[in-house]
Every structure is written in C-alpha cells, then in structure tokens.
Design goal:
By secondary structure, the chain is α+β, with helices and mostly antiparallel strands. Among the domains are: 187 residues, no CATH class; 64 residues, no CATH class. The strands form two sheets. Strands 1, 2, 3, 4, 5, 6, 7, 10 and 11 form a nine-stranded antiparallel β-sheet that branches. The protein has a two-stranded antiparallel sheet with strand order 8-9. The chain is extended and about 130 Å long. This is KOW domain-containing protein. It comes from Lentinula aciculospora.
C-alpha cells in the first residue's frame, strides 16, 4: 500500500467528534511544503499550530463522551478527596495534532463545529473551550471509602484515574478502527480494597436517537407510503407508437387548465435538451464535427484547383489550395473573435472610448483658446505683419 503524506485538509479539519481511532496518521511529520501551505493567507480561520511528532499522543484514552475534571489553573478552591468543589466536564471533541481536549461549556475561545480555533462572530452561541491532554483526569464514578477512626458513616466521593494503562491495540476489520482496553492503575483518592488492581474503564456508548411522538401536524405513514406517480399513457421507448403531437392551442389549454384532460401533453424525448452540454462526450462530438468540416473545406478547395490546373502541376495546385484553406481558417477565426468581442459589448466600449477622447480633445482646445497671459515685465507684443 503506498504511503500518503499529510494533507492540509487533515490539519485544518483535525478536530474530531468520533471516539474511535481509525488510523495513526496524526503521528506523521509535517513537511516543509505543507508548512508553507498552512502559512498562506486564507479565508479559513483555523489554528496552524501543530505540536512536534515526539510530543503527540499515540493512544488516546480520553475521547468524546467521557467525563473529566481539569487540573491546574485558577479555581475557587482545591479538589479534595471528600468531593468538595469538584466540577465535571463532558468531552465533545479532540484535536490529535495539538493534544487538545474540547469540553462542553459556554466559553468563547473555540468553535468546534467547524474545526476553527478563533472566536465565532455569532454572539450568544455556545462555544466549547479546549485544554491540554495532560490537564484532564477521567471520572471513574462515585465510590464509598472505608470508615476511618472516629467516623460513623461511610463517605461517597468521586474517584478519578491518576494513571492510565492500555492493552495492545487490535484492528477491527468489521468497524475499521483500532480497539484496545483502557484501565486505571492508580486512582485519586486511593481505593484500599482495590489497591494494585487494574480498574477497567468502559468506552463511552453512543446515545440512541429518540424520535419525538407524532403530532396532528405530521404526515400519516399510509400517506407517505402511498404511490402517487401515474405513468404517462404513451410508451417512453421508440419501440411503441408515438402519440400525436398536440397543437399549440391544445398545449396551452392543457397547460393553463388542469381539468382539460387526465394527462396534460408534454414534450417528447427530451434527452438531448436535458442532457449536460459540457460533458466529455458532447465536447468530443463537437470537436470531431469541427475537424470534419475543416477537412471537407480543404477537399473542396483541392477539387476546385485540380479542375483547372492553368499550367501547374497537381502538387502546386494542392499547395495553393492548402494556402487558400489556411487563409480561410484565419479569416474565420478573426470573424469569430470579432463576434465574441461584439457579444461582450466591445462596440459599446469602443464608442464610449471615442466619445471620451473627443470630449477630452474639445476641452483641451477650449483651454488653449481661452488662455490669457498676465501682464509681466520683459514681455514683448509681436508686431503685426
């Protein structure tokens, strides 16, 4: 299988909402040519930042659909083992080229919908903020801690994965993605009854699509499944009998009066009119027709010259016919260019230029005619002859 380099499209639209890893292309290096393409000015607003290959994460254990908490940053207090001031966030997307995790929120930094990393101009729209992968801890659920000295009731606290591990990845040929198990080897807070045990973390499951109940405004199922198409009364192929072509009066009467008949008259066999005129077959056919006409014109000139040689040889007559044929083609080409020039409004532009030129010359003549010199010293009035 040939090796395909990274493309600009993969980096521009690197933000993914899928929890599955279909390939490890995010580990490929960015070439110099691709860097030049990314640095070009474009109407697309996206982040050109790509972390080094050695810093990229190969196995992503935090995927869209997980619940996490954020480490570091400014908070109104520290997340304690008793579960005070713990804020959970839902992961909505990831960027594997930047090691960024997008969480659901009302912040204004990133618009994940289109893979852009710039503020959206639409005010009031929900925007998701991104954080580095190292600041995220997976939420494992709430667990009861064993009783300590002086306690009479067990505490239920949220538990997070402090250290993660993975099993060897396996390619699933049915779903076309890489699959592995993720587990927590160390938790916060530490669970004494599960110390040293690998706690398997299940992957998020997609929520089923729930359809709303039918309302009186919805179309009934039997109406949707009802066949309303009525085939025309004539045969659509050339093997059957062609119907009589309606007159203009009949056609207009049927067009403006839907009760004139059961089946209004329609145009027959519109495959030429409705087909694409710019298809490759149509272009080839037009090109063949033009060259066929040129060859026929050359043969006519040769036959005309061979009828009356006038002391010339047949080779000289054919050469003169070819010369006349080339002149004719050049004249036709000039005539075609003139027709195209006229269709594009060339005559109106030429008339406007001539009018502006005459107007400019008239203004210059009036300025010269009305030119007067101020009386200054050392001026001599020429004598009349």
């Amino acid at each position: 299988m040939p090796f395909h380099r990274l493309t600009r499209h993969e980096i521009v639209f690197a933000v993914s909402r899928s929890p599955w890893t279909t390939s490890f292309r995010h580990l490929l290096p960015v070439s110099k040519i691709l860097n030049q393409k990314l640095n070009r000015t474009s109407f697309e607003a996206f982040s050109k930042k790509v972390v080094a290959v050695k810093d990229r994460i190969k196995y992503w254990n935090i995927v869209p659909g997980d619940q996490i908490r954020l480490l570091g940053g400014r908070r109104k207090g520290k997340d304690s083992a008793e579960g005070k001031n713990v804020v959970l966030h839902e992961v909505v997307a990831v960027n594997k080229f930047r090691n960024r995790v997008y969480v659901r929120g009302m912040r204004h930094d990133v618009s994940v919908s289109f893979g852009y990393d710039k503020p959206s101009p639409e005010a009031g729209q929900r925007q998701d903020k991104n954080y580095h992968y190292s600041r995220c801890q997976l939420f494992l659920g709430e667990h009861e801690l064993p009783l300590k000295a002086g306690q009479s009731q067990r505490q239920v606290v949220p538990v997070f994965a402090q250290r993660l591990g993975t099993s060897p990845p396996v390619w699933n040929s049915y779903s076309h993605n890489w699959q592995w198990e993720r587990f927590a080897t160390k938790t916060v807070p530490v669970l004494p009854e599960r110390r040293g045990e690998r706690i398997v973390i299940p992957w998020p499951k997609s929520q089923p699509i729930i359809h709303a109940d039918a309302t009186p405004y919805d179309t009934l199922e039997e109406q949707v499944l009802k066949v309303t198409y009525k085939p025309p009364p004539f045969s659509p192929t050339l093997r059957g009998l062609l119907p009589r072509v309606p007159t203009e009066t009949e056609y207009l009467r049927a067009l403006y009066n839907s009760f004139a008949g059961t089946q209004p008259p329609v145009e027959q066999f519109l495959f030429k009119e409705l087909s694409n005129p710019h298809s490759r077959a149509k272009k080839m056919k037009r090109w063949q027709e033009v060259h066929r006409a040129k060859r026929m014109l050359l043969n006519e000139y040769i036959d005309e010259e061979l009828k009356d040689l006038k002391g010339r040889t047949k080779g000289e007559a054919r050469a003169e016919a070819a010369f006349r044929w080339r002149q004719k083609l050049e004249e036709d080409k000039k005539e075609g260019r003139k027709i195209q020039w006229m269709k594009k409004g060339g005559e109106e532009k030429l008339e406007r230029k001539i009018k502006m030129r005459k107007r400019k010359e008239e203004k210059q003549r009036l300025r010269l005619a009305s030119l007067t010199l101020k009386e200054e010293p050392n001026q001599v009035i020429p004598q009349e002859l």
